[in-house]
Amino acid sequence: MVEQEDGDYLCDDHGDNTWETRLEAESVMDIAQGGEGFVPYEIKILNARQEALEELLEIAKSDDREVAHIDADGVLCQLLTTLGYKDVVDAYHEISKWYA
User: Fold this and answer.
1) What residue segments make up the domains of the chain, in order of their start?
2) Higher pLDDT, 19 or 67
3) Are 77 and 92 in contact (CB under 8 A)?
């Protein structure tokens, strides 16, 4: 990434030497994923955080600890993916899990 004077960054997210601003890249990715186009990254973070909190609080009401744990893992993995840490989630999925 290369920082520009306006604070945005030029990046080659696709690895094909097609440089675009971070905002352009985010807009393209959002549309490709069925979204409506550009949504500021800061808004995406706030929305993802709020959705995760709401889902986790709902999951916390469950009487089944094992299912709640599995569901919470999914919520946290989705949040990490949304925040750009899909590689961390992929590595986490490589770990064998055991629920009692």
Assistant:
1) 1-39, 40-100
2) 67
3) yes
